[in-house]
Write a structure and sequence with these properties.
394 residues; 16 helices; single chain; Alpha-Beta Plaits
Length: 394
């Protein structure tokens, strides 16, 4: 009973005062109430009826109003404050009267505290306990509200009697969000490392790597801005969508940077090199259609998620929205910001390395590809044809 009263009248009001908390529901324990057990023999002896006891109990502990008094050009409210929780006051309640004087409730009934009828129970570590369910408001930030709740619970625990604690959390919704954010951060770092290694191995310079990696944070930033503009929430599913899209956010930028760098190197070989800006614009236009088509195909794959209904739709639609928006942000970045960065970082580097040999990895891959193509042209019979059986050379 004491634990439930502390949960109802001490912890619950403290938590409801926190901005963002919508509801606090204590579960388990015993709800204290008055128990009056009439003694029928004693009631008959003094001439008290059961309805007299019921009427007296209904009027017990109630506050009543008495109107107002007008004095000194002011109105003073009159009220009778009779609310009490002391068991002695209930025992001394006057039920009726006779020639011998007032008849009190303790004379005709047994009065004490007892637990109300239970409609549920709760436990912790195999022992009876009082569990408090805390629900936040729909628009409140889960992590911020959770931090404030945990801070309040620590403060309350310091004031509780010995043996009672209120800071043991069983289910913490903020863990899902924090885990998702950690996964997203780890994916960003891993994707950046992989892209850096691959680009440096193929192009042998850090500038192309840096230009490509810019697409990662910029695409995520654009996604966050769009979410803010349209009032979309960032939750576990949207973070999951971003984590899935991280591996593809840099693809468009890599394609554009590689083609721009190659065209700049080729332009440096020309007897009359064209303007750098024209070369970058032409190189970006060469791969633009391919990037757009690839992005459109990826979006088409995710379109069925937006037609799901019920619980499935509410779960997976935010994931699809985050994924599609981030992919579109990557597309916009690759055809706007990436060419600008290429203009400022790559022309001088391409001119210096116009005569430089390709990386050893690229030379070996080209040599292997040349041997494979030569083998394929010399052995046409190994080529598969869906038509009727006939020599492949035809």
């Amino acid at each position: 009973m004491q634990a439930r009263e502390i949960a109802d009248f001490q912890i619950r009001p403290r938590l409801l005062a926190i901005p963002g908390v919508a509801q606090v529901i204590p579960i388990g324990g015993e709800v204290r109430q008055y128990r009056v057990s009439p003694d029928l023999a004693a009631m008959s002896a003094v001439g008290v009826k059961l309805k007299d006891v019921e009427a007296a109990l209904e009027a017990f502990g109630t506050n009543t109003g008495g109107g107002f008094v007008d004095q000194y050009e002011r109105e003073f409210l009159i009220r009778n404050v009779a609310r009490t929780t002391r068991i002695e006051d209930l025992r001394n309640l006057v039920v009726a009267g006779n020639a011998d004087g007032p008849i009190r409730l303790s004379q005709i009934a047994k009065v004490d505290f007892a637990a109300a009828f239970r409609r549920g129970d709760a436990g912790f570590d195999g022992q009876p306990a009082v569990v408090i369910a805390i629900q936040k408001q729909p628009d409140a930030a889960t992590v911020a509200v959770t931090d404030e709740v945990e801070k309040a619970l620590k403060e309350v625990t310091a004031t509780l009697p010995s043996g009672l604690r209120a800071d043991r959390v069983q289910f913490r919704q903020a863990n899902f969000i924090q885990t998702s954010i950690g996964t997203l951060q780890r994916a960003l770092v891993e994707a950046g490392i992989v892209v850096s290694v691959v680009l440096f191995a193929f192009l042998l310079n850090w500038r192309t790597t840096a230009v490509s990696l810019v697409a990662l944070p910029v695409s995520i930033l654009i996604t966050a801005v769009i979410f803010e503009i349209f009032g979309l929430s960032i939750n576990t599913m949207t973070l999951g969508g971003l984590a899935i899209a991280i591996g593809e956010l840099v693809d468009d930028a890599v394609v554009g940077v590689e083609n721009v760098y190659r065209r700049l190197r080729e332009n440096a070989h020309e007897p009359e090199p064209r303007p750098v800006l024209a070369v970058i614009a032409h190189a970006t236009g060469e791969v633009r259609s391919g990037i757009i088509y690839a992005t459109a195909i990826i979006i088409l794959v995710f379109l069925p998620l937006f037609f799901l209904g019920g619980v499935e739709g509410r779960l997976f639609q935010p994931l699809g929205i985050a994924y599609v928006i981030s992919i579109l942000a990557s597309l916009v970045t690759s055809i706007t910001l990436t060419p600008v960065l290429c203009y400022y970082l790559l022309p001088k580097l391409a001119a210096k390395r116009a005569e430089a040999a390709e990386s050893g990895l690229v030379r070996r891959l080209k040599a292997a590809n040349e041997r494979l193509l030569g083998w394929g042209s010399r052995a046409p019979g190994w080529c598969w044809s869906p038509g009727p059986s006939r020599p492949a050379s035809r």
